[in-house]
Amino acid sequence: MSTDVKYAIQDVYPDDFSWCYGCGRLNEKGHQFRTGWDGDKTVTIYTPKAEHTAIPGFVYGGLLASLIDCHGTGAASLALHKKNGYMPEDGVEAPRFVTASLQVNYKKPTPQGHSLKAVGTIEEIHPKKYKIHIEVFSSELCCASGEVVAVKMPESFGQSS
């Protein structure tokens, strides 16, 4: 299993929108999830910390939900960025997405001490709306799956009226 995402979409998010606890590269206390391409799929790899424990030996389910959520919005951003003719390594500012819906299905207890790999399959359902189907693996074990519907953040988001 690969242990790093070399070119992550989060690297080209605007600074004002890089503070998410899950995927914000500027949030030093956050997870700093990194989402990139792996062929025609998207991937995020993350190693849970000891404090991400549900019960001894197993990962807290909220971390899995956060991973699925941020992977989904990152995958949507990757898809639109690519549709616009760019890849993260181009250094061009990427579009931002917000979560419209999040579904998480826990399949197996997730063992502590292993890297998690979220793998996404992208389905465009509208020019500004994407559905991402995600599976989270610990080694070869699929521990969770989910679906994120992500919508493009309006250009005016965060501006004073």
Describe this structure in words.
This protein has 161 residues and is mainly β. The chain has one helix spanning 61-83; strands at 35-38, 41-46, 53-55, 58-59, 97-106, 116-126, 129-138, 141-152. A 6-stranded antiparallel sheet has the order 1-2-6-7-8-5, with helices on one face. It has a two-stranded antiparallel sheet with strand order 3-4. A hairpin with a 2-residue loop joins strand 6 and strand 7 (129-138). The longest helix has 23 residues, at 61-83.
What is the structure about, briefly put?
By secondary structure, the protein is mainly β. The chain has one helix spanning 61-83, and strands at 35-38, 41-46, 53-55, 58-59, 97-106, 116-126, 129-138, 141-152. A six-stranded antiparallel sheet has the order 1-2-6-7-8-5, covered by helices on one side. A two-stranded antiparallel ribbon has the order 3-4.
What characteristics describe this protein?
mainly beta, 6-stranded antiparallel beta sheet, 1 helix
Uncertain spans: none
Principal-axis shape equals: globular
**What is the count of β-strands?**
8
Physical arrangement of strands within the biggest beta sheet: 1-2-6-7-8-5
- Structural class by secondary-structure content: mainly beta
